Amino acid sequence: MDIPDLKRQFLEYIEIEKGRSLKTVENYDRYLTRFIGFASIKTPDQITDSVLREYRLWLNRQLVTNNGKKAVKDSLKKKTQNYYLIALRSFLKYMVRRGIPSLPPDRIELAKVGERSLDLISPEELVRIMKAPEGDDVRAWRDRAVFALLFSTGLRVSELCSLNSDINLNHEDLSVRGKGDKVRVVFISESAKEVVKTYLSKRKDMDDALFVNLMPKTIINKTKPDSERLTPRSIERIVKHYAIKAGISKKVTPHVIRHSFATDLLSNGADLRSVQAMLGHANIGTTQIYTHVTDKHLRDVHKKFHGKTGE
Question: Please, what is the Cα angle at 156 between 150 and 161, to 5 degrees?
């Protein structure tokens, strides 16, 4: 069986059997197509250690571009290189599952990357941005509801966009379907529920989506589907607009508010496992990135014992 056929079957497998999102399937397709084009291989047994080594060198020497303009001297980031390697390793695991001879997947070691940094805003900045939508019209209440739910639940922006207007606000919890089609429970504060209720009471449309485009229909692109559900990109623009309005110079995204949700819980004594569950992280290592900015105990130790010399 040749490589293009195997790649197609692998992509169908991760979409149907593994339940990966269409975006993930598209990314894996792109990564594997790039590998196959580089290696010029036709069968899986042609994937060897030497091919892998040459591919990694090639990836590391690719120049990144500045918005399609002049190439700069930096190679692809290690994290980006790892995306390509993870796709290839998953492809090799699939061939092991099929009993097809090829390079063992454990021969692929990911590049070491530096610890991920967090984009954070202060509690004061968070309050400013949440108060930035002004007025009593449906748009202002929609945008207040966006911020209220993002901070109350810690939802990913894609999860927020998928919510429907029949959301049950008589309960404190809400089931959402997140990454990998996994369902988890998030919690809505009383204040967030009141904001969402007011927003829904001002809605006049019959759209199923909770958050909808409120632009006049005469200027909405006619090629769009009937539903006016807001997209993640639309939510990102809303957050950016109010961050500027609130006088926040740093970049603020929906994910930054998700960070604020996590750090708020940990700073107030929540345990890491509970925060992991509420964020929907498959690996607790992903959640641990928040601990070094929220360890109140270490701050208290520093405050109590530092600077005593010479007193």
Answer: 80
Domains and CATH numbers, the chain: 3-107 (1.10.150.130), 123-299 (1.10.443.10)
255 is catalytic: yes
- Give 38-78 pLDDT, tens digit per residue: 999 999 999 999 999 999 999 988 876 655 555 555 668 88
Phi and psi (nearest 5°) for 184? Answer: -140, 165
Q: Mean pLDDT in the chain?
A: 87
Per-residue pLDDT reduced to its tens digit, 259-286:
999 999 988 888 889 999 999 998 888 8
pLDDT in tens, 168-190: 999 898 889 887 778 899 999 99
Active site residue 8: no
Tokens of 224: 């769009």
What's the one-letter identity of residue 37? G
Reported pTM: 0.69
- DSSP code at position 105: G
Using left for φ > 0, alpha for ψ between -120 and 50, and beta otherwise, residue 140 falls in alpha
Can you list the positions of beta strands (E) in 63-207? Answer: 63-65, 71-75, 173-177, 183-187
**How many other β-carbons are positioned within 10 Å of the β-carbon of residue 248?**
20
Here the tokens at position 151 are: 């901070």
The answer to whether the CB of 89 falls within 8 A of the CB of 102 is: no
Q: Return phi, psi of residue 41, to 5°.
A: -105, 155
Q: Which of 56, 128, 179, 240 is catalytic?
A: 179
Find all residues with CB under 8 Å of 29, minimum gap 6, and list them.
7, 11
Single-letter amino acid, residue 163: L
Find the catalytic residue in 139, 258, 302, 308. Answer: 258
Q: Is residue 20 annotated as a catalytic residue, yes or no?
A: no
* Residue of 89, 156, 193, 259 marked catalytic: 156
